[in-house]
From TrEMBL:
Protein name: Uncharacterized protein
Organism: Scortum barcoo
Top-rank taxon: Eukaryota
Length: 454
């Protein structure tokens, strides 16, 4: 039987007084109102505050390299994601809902408020670095010298995302991440943060990688096959790729596994011009279905997407369901989230702003769910079912995940970082099938028939 740390009300109040915390979250609100944050974390009586508005950027946004409903365009591959996950070897790789969908979710309040999205790029590089888990992969003096370049802004974003998520996880678990810096001899390196056998998390990994060099001919060929026109100089194509990726496996089967990955790719051509694109996503893999959790998770992602375009969430949600599909089992890995790749419009600034909005959902979309189920009891049978579901997670990652497969096949790959995504323990039972009408059978039905949660 797993044990967890229990936080007293007094300690929670003291913590809330010390830090800025996200408010208690609600489920659907009648009348189609936006998501409404609630007031003080110190008072049991909660007062609704006015909701924040949302906007879209109109319909003139093209979705690069995917077809209708988020499906990959015919004859194309996602080698941008592959190269980052393989060459870097670290990437393993709204509230407009039906009012009667289900009752409001009571989420915990002890979650750090995300960093504000405006103006942070203009801050002092060195000062911002003080809050990271480690110094950035790129030398700070180099970052300061090219402060306005996208590769610097993205590296700072992924470092901040890693630090914010690691600190939030440490606070709930009570443990500490091991920080492991590594270098890639061809250029660049990464920072792997891993916490293993904690009180709450059996295995938690948050990786950053920043790599550069020249594209291999095979990688360039894959990019050209999906429509990229790349003209190198003397047969060489300088590139830079960077990203942050994470997989969290909790001990308690009522706390879901979560995964996210956000990345940037840049290629310099013969004339000095650069092609660039972003990719990423966040998805949830529960062991037992909880509609309130599913709504909260998807709604948080939808709100981030809706700030930029009304088609982002529905298209990227479908894309996620299609990607995280275990074909030989006929089921999805989890209940999805969002997934996208090759985003290079409508402008670099707006694409980066979208990715930044998504990256800043990783704490508010997941940590309230963790705190909500922190004290949930569970049986040996429920733990066994968690182990079986983890086996499915392993199957997807080793059989289908393009980033893992590419990384394992790349000479000089950092295997420990690639396999960080795998759980510490898992189980495979011969001909396992849950009894009809059980919570396990209900979970399986959802995985075999993906749902719309918002």
């Amino acid at each position: 039987m797993a044990t967890v740390v229990l936080f007293s009300v007094n300690r929670a109040a003291r913590t809330a007084a010390r830090r800025c915390l996200t408010p208690r979250l609600t489920g659907p609100v009648r009348g189609g109102e936006p998501h409404l944050p609630l007031s003080s974390t110190h008072s049991p009586s909660l007062t609704l505050l006015p909701g924040s508005g949302r906007f879209s950027r109109g319909s003139g946004v093209r979705f690069i390299s995917h077809g209708p409903a988020g499906r990959p365009a015919a004859g194309r591959t996602r080698s941008g994601a592959l190269l980052l996950a393989g060459a870097a070897t670290a990437a393993v790789a709204g509230l407009l809902a039906n009012a009667d969908h289900f009752q409001r979710a009571e989420m915990a309040t002890k979650v750090p408020r995300p960093v504000q999205e405006t103006g942070d790029e203009e801050g002092d590089i060195l000062e911002r670095c003080r809050g990271f888990m480690s110094l950035p992969v790129t030398d700070v003096s180099v970052l300061q010298g090219r402060k306005e370049e996208m590769r610097t802004r993205m590296e700072m974003l992924i470092m901040e995302t890693q630090a914010d998520f690691c600190k939030a996880l440490q606070e709930v678990d009570g443990g500490k991440f091991k920080v492991d810096r590594w270098e890639r001899k061809e250029g660049g390196g990464g920072i792997s943060c891993v916490m293993q056998d904690g009180k709450v998390f059996e295995k938690a990994g948050v990786n950053v990688s920043v790599v550069f060099g020249n594209l291999t001919e095979e990688a360039a060929k894959q990019m050209r096959s999906r429509g990229k026109v790349l003209k190198g100089k003397d047969g060489k194509l300088p590139f830079c790729a960077m990203g942050v990726s994470s997989v969290i496996h909790p001990k308690n089967p009522h706390i879901p596994t979560v995964h996210f990955n956000y990345r940037y790719f840049e290629v310099e051509e013969e004339d000095g011009s650069k092609q660039w694109w972003f990719g990423g996503g966040t998805d949830l893999t529960p062991v037992y279905i909880n509609k309130e959790d599913a709504f909260h998770f998807h709604n948080t992602l939808k709100e981030a997407c809706d700030k930029h375009h009304p088609k982002y969430y529905p298209d990227f949600k479908k894309w996620c369901d299609r990607y995280f599909y275990i074909r030989h089992r006929g089921e999805t890995r989890g209940i999805g989230g969002i997934f996208f790749d090759d985003v290079d419009s409508p402008s670099q600034e707006e694409a980066f702003s979208f990715v930044k909005s998504c990256a800043r959902t990783v704490v508010p979309c997941y940590l309230p769910i963790v705190y909500k189920h922190l004290n949930d009891s569970f049986t040996e049978e429920e733990k066994d079912w968690q182990q079986v579901r983890r086996g499915r997670y392993v199957e997807f990652n080793l059989v289908y995940d393009r980033g893992v497969k590419f990384g394992l096949a790349t000479p000089g790959s950092r295997i420990e970082s690639i396999l960080m995504s795998l759980p510490l323990t898992a189980r495979w039972e011969y001909m396992h099938e849950p009894a009809k009408g059980t919570p396990e059978a209900k979970m399986l039905e959802v995985l075999q028939n993906p749902k719309e949660w918002v």
